[in-house]
């Protein structure tokens, strides 16, 4: 019988299902995507019936080929083992620029050309050249506007959030949220100072940072992060790790935030009391923490709530919105998250939505749980934000038990 069992086990292992065609195709996306990002615009702008003079076609093709070669090389030097900031800036800029150019080459290359054809505008060559100039014009405008949006001080987004279990004594509690500051190759120390100055004007009781402080180690990005030490809150400043901390020696960031006076809520909670009522403020490590191999790091909601009175309302900090499934199962009242950047560069939010249950704003999950997803305070990688503005968020918590104001 033992021999038969072993034989069946071996047979079972041998007959394990092979990866699907989709999974096999996914392996080639890192190779296919960069080619498409440059080949599609090249085809639309140069070979779509425009009949440009040969020197124009040759120079244009050479520029697209140069971009195709430079992008991966710059990304590898900038974000690989060498961590060269100048190369990272070049690679990130090319990545964002090529995405915008690709998007509008596809949209205008199809829709505008179709509209011109239906309207009977000119010959095929005339329509092709109109499309070319339209794509170049829209791309140039969006690159300039997107860069300005990415580098500006975020606007404050304020909203009231009613929590049914919140006691009347906590009505009006002001919670400021910053997240995804992503200090990186572009030095934003002054930007960081102004963000913190803006947060201080909000007179918040609680200030939260839900992770992705920087791209790079705490030692390397320390100067940009130091202004976080000037942030003021009447009750507490709390922080949880994001996935990018786990690319850059996460414990160093935890230690630095602690040094700057923030409380890292690593699977633990604190109690915020006012007017005889109490709010549990809990935090968990990012969902990628355990796979990082860093000892003691993992997302552990039970540990975060250990010892808390289950009848008290809970405000949970979790970097990624998709943690809300676990939060809703435990009856968390409000989860604050970032991670998505609101898509950052339109229409990337459609891809983000595949991985996350929410991209931006307030949403309900389950019978009790609310999730607020910030579009982020900074930007990741490409220094552009297109139709996804950054934000500093002020949430004013409301209690249904508070007496109506006169």
UniProtKB/TrEMBL annotation:
Q: Which CDD domains match?
A: MPP_YkuE_C
By its UniProt entry, which InterPro entries does this protein fall under?
Calcineurin-like_PHP, Metallo-depent_PP-like, Metallophosphoesterase_sf
Instruction: State any single GO MF term.
Output: metal ion binding
Give a GO cellular-component term: membrane
| Keywords tagged on the record | Hydrolase, Membrane, Metal-binding, Transmembrane, Transmembrane helix
Please indicate which superkingdom the organism of origin belongs to.
Bacteria
Q: Which residues cross the membrane?
A: 28-48, 54-74, 94-116, 128-147
Domain Calcineurin-like phosphoesterase positions: 173-342
Q: Which parts form a coiled-coil structure per UniProt?
A: none
GO BP terms, alphabetized: lipid A biosynthetic process
**Protein name as it appears in the record:** Metallophosphoesterase
């Amino acid at each position: 019988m033992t021999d038969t069992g072993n034989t069946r086990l071996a047979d079972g292992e041998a007959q394990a299902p092979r990866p699907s065609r989709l999974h096999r195709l996914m392996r080639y996306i890192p190779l296919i995507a960069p080619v498409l990002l440059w080949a599609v615009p090249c085809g639309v702008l140069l070979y779509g019936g425009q009949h440009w003079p040969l020197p124009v076609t040759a120079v244009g093709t050479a520029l697209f080929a140069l971009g195709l070669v430079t992008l991966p090389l710059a990304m590898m030097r900038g974000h690989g083992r060498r961590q060269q900031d100048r190369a990272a800036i070049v690679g990130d800029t090319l990545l964002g620029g090529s995405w915008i150019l690709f998007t509008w080459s596809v949209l205008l290359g199809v829709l505008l050309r179709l509209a011109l054809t239906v309207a009977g505008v000119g010959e095929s060559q005339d329509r092709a050249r109109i499309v070319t100039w339209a794509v170049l014009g829209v791309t140039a405008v969006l690159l300039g506007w997107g860069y300005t949006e990415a580098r500006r001080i975020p606007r404050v987004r304020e909203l009231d959030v009613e929590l049914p279990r919140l006691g009347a004594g906590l009505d009006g509690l002001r919670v400021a949220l910053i997240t995804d500051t992503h200090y990186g190759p572009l030095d934003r120390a002054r930007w960081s100072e102004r963000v913190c100055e803006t947060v201080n004007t909000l007179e918040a009781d609680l200030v939260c940072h839900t992770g992705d402080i920087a791209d790079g180690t705490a030692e390397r990005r320390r100067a940009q992060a130091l202004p976080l030490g000037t942030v003021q809150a009447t009750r507490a400043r709390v922080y949880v790790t994001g996935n990018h901390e786990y690319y850059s020696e996460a414990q160093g960031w935890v230690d630095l935030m602690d040094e700057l006076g923030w409380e890292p809520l690593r699977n633990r909670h604190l109690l915020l009391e006012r007017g005889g009522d109490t709010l549990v403020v809990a935090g968990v490590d990012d969902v990628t923490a355990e796979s990082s191999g860093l000892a003691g790091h993992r997302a552990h909601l039970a540990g975060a709530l250990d010892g808390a009175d289950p009848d008290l309302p809970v405000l949970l900090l979790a970097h990624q919105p998709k943690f809300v499934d676990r939060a809703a199962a435990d009856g968390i009242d409000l989860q604050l998250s970032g991670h998505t950047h609101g898509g950052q560069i339109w229409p990337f939010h459609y891809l983000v939505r595949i991985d996350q249950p929410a991209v931006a704003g307030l949403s309900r999950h389950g019978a009790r749980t609310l999730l607020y997803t910030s579009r982020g305070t900074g930007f990741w990688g490409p220094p552009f934000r297109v139709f996804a503005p950054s934000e500093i968020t002020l949430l004013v918590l409301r209690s249904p038990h508070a007496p109506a104001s006169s």
